[in-house]
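Case study 2.
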Amino acid sequence: MMNVLALYQLKGGVGKTSTAVNLASLAATSGLQVLLWDLDPQGAATWLSGVDATLDAKSKHWLKGKSALGRYVERSPVGGFDVLPAASAHRLLDVLLNKVDQPEQALAKLLKPFSEHYQLVILDAPPSLSHLADNVMMAADCVLLPVIPGFLAQRTLELVAERMDALKQPRHKMAAFYTMVDRRRTVHREQRQVQPVTGVSWLDTDIPYASSVERMGLYRQPLSGFTAASDPANAAYAALWLAVQQQLSRLRTA
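Prediction:
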C-alpha cells in the first residue's frame, strides 16, 4: 500500500523542503521505496537531493497522460530515495489544472501508477493557496505542516484548515509540528506550548534551528549524509519520522 505525504505551508522559509528531503532519506533507510516529487518550480528539493535533472516534459503532456512521468524519475546520490524533479513549467500548473477533467483529482490520478513500485510518495508543494494546493490536499493521506513558533502560526493553520473544509477533506489529515525552534527566544518557548486550530493533529516533535540544516545546501545531501546520528537536528528529524509513521498508521485505521 502506498502512502502519500505532503509537505505544505502557506508561508515560505519554514523548513518545508529540508523536512521533505530528510524524511525521504529516513523513510528509505527504514526499508521503504520512496519517491520525492518536487512540485515547486524553484526546485529546492531537487537541488538539496543532489539531483541535477529537470522534468523537461511539457506539463500539459503529462497532465493529460501523453507523457509517462515515471521516465523522468532520478535516483538521489545520497539517501536511497528517488526524485521526480522540479520544472520551471510547474509555475503554469494552476492554469493547466483548470483545463482537465476533475481538476482537483488530477494529481491523485497521476500518482496511482507509482503505487506499483513505491510505498511512500512525498510531495514538496509550493507555498500558496491554489489549484495545485487543492490537488495536494486531495491526494495526500497526510498533510504535514511545519510551523515556526510565532503569533501568525494560528492564522496560517486556520486558513489551511478552512480550505480543507471547503474541499470536504477531514482536518485530522493535517499534522503540524514546530520547526526552526530557538529555545533562547521567549516567544518560541511560549508559542510552542500553544497547539491552535481545532481538529489539526500536533506531532510532539520540534525541529531546532541548526546550522547543520543550512549546510544541506552546501553538501546537497540529507543530514544523514554528512552528520552523525547524534546531531541534534538529525536526531530531531529521526524522531519526526517516527511520529509521521505513527500518524499515517492512525489515519489508515481511522
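The beta strands are 3-7, 34-38, 74-75, 82-84, 120-124, 142-147, 174-178, 201-202.
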